[in-house]
Design goal:
five-stranded mixed sheet, globular, Cupredoxin family protein
Length: 164
């Protein structure tokens, strides 16, 4: 019985770290806007980001102000290629989704825990709206920022984020 308790304790300790319900990723974690050392505006267009690439420094906390100037709902999602693939599957599986037109959706309608929107690395922004995401980058890693609304990533709505 002691071995079972020890094994369970070790298993729980090996799970991802969560802060305020947000997952800690290898490349960093969500942060309060008050900790930001720099603010970067990211404009979402149909189907593009401005700027097309971003550079940050390891240890830097960046406040992203995400402005949707497009006619479609878009995401700003930080992650590696594998994370984007998984998130795209989650987005496609959401009930009642109209591919490419998520005009009536917001995070409260999406159901936390099953689509990646409660982990702090993603904001969904409706047309004409803005949102913020603040992130502390911990170490260099191959990261992208992307829109994972079905079809948008594949259409080129993805950019490289370099952590120096």
């Amino acid at each position: 019985m002691k071995h079972l308790i020890l094994a369970a304790t070790l298993a729980v300790a090996s799970l991802p770290v969560f802060a305020d319900g947000a997952k800690t990723f290898g490349f960093g974690e969500p942060a309060p806007a008050s900790k930001a050392t720099r603010t970067v505006d990211v404009v979402l267009k149909d189907i593009a980001f401005e700027p097309k690439s971003l550079q940050v420094k390891a240890g830097e906390t960046v406040r992203f102000v995400v402005i949707n100037e497009g006619k479609l709902a878009h995401e700003f999602n930080l992650g590696d290629k594998a994370m984007h693939v998984e998130h795209q599957k989650e987005m496609a599986a959401m009930a009642g989704m109209d591919h490419g037109n998520m005009a009536g959706m917001d995070h409260s309608q999406m159901g936390h825990g099953d689509n990646g929107h409660d982990q702090g690395n993603t904001v969904l922004v409706q047309p004409g709206q803005r949102a913020e995401l603040t992130w502390t980058f911990r170490k260099s890693a191959p990261i992208e920022f992307a829109c994972n609304v079905p079809g948008h990533y594949q259409a080129g709505m993805v950019g490289q984020l370099t952590i120096e």
